[in-house]
């Protein structure tokens, strides 16, 4: 069995042999990638192109248990703002009944944080301490699973920055925090783009 499927988006829906991990779908408006697990379902655009004879697709992000409560994001932001001199990592998991925050073992300093992604992670949040909120090359290498990633920056200020993206097995798509969380903490400035 091949791990990846290659599908065509026909009038009757995607046609072809799907893969168990994710699928590439050639659609009327370009190349897409789709994946799903018990927590997430996603469809992201990889490349735009007009392809005659195929039906178009639209990007999608579905959190299967609903959006994550805003107070969980607020708690993580508050914790990270209390430790601005070192990067920090938090995981938001689905525990079978509700979303919960987990702080796994991690090695932290001013320029990096090393951690192990927990099973069942829906969203991971890490801080860049006093630096801006951006996804680094190290983040790109670390975030090879299927989850939402949020990076916080300038956590030493009154208005920390936040940036979010959907990670699908090494592919990335920017997402708005409101697509993932039921609201935003009043003290967070969202930056909107992939880097």
TrEMBL record:
Q: Which InterPro entries match?
A: JAB_dom_prok
Tell me which residues make up the JAB domain.
116-155
| Key word Hydrolase present | yes
GO molecular function terms listed in the Swiss-Prot or TrEMBL record: metal ion binding; metallopeptidase activity
Q: Which UniProt keywords apply?
A: Hydrolase, Metal-binding, Metalloprotease, Protease, Zinc
Cite a single GO BP annotation. proteolysis
* Protein name per its UniProtKB record: JAB domain-containing protein
Q: Which organism is it from?
A: marine sediment metagenome
């Amino acid at each position: 069995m091949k791990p990846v499927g290659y599908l065509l988006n026909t009038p009757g829906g995607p046609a072809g042999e799907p893969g168990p991990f994710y699928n590439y779908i050639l659609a009327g408006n370009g190349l897409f990638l789709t994946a799903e697990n018990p927590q997430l379902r996603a469809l992201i655009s990889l490349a735009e192109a007009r392809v005659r004879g195929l039906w178009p697709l639209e990007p999608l992000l579905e959190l299967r248990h609903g959006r994550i409560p805003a107070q969980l994001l607020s708690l993580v932001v508050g914790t990270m703002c209390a430790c601005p001199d070192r990067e920090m990592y938090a995981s938001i998991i689905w525990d079978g009944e509700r979303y919960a925050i987990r702080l796994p073992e991690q090695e932290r300093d001013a320029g990096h944080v090393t951690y192990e992604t927990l099973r069942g992670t829906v969203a991971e949040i890490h801080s860049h301490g006093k630096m801006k909120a951006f996804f680094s090359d190290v983040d790109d290498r670390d975030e090879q699973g299927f989850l939402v990633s949020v990076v916080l920056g300038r956590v030493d200020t009154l208005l920390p920055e936040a940036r979010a993206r959907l990670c699908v097995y090494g592919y990335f798509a920017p997402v708005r925090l409101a697509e993932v969380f039921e609201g935003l903490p009043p003290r967070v400035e969202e930056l909107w783009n992939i880097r």
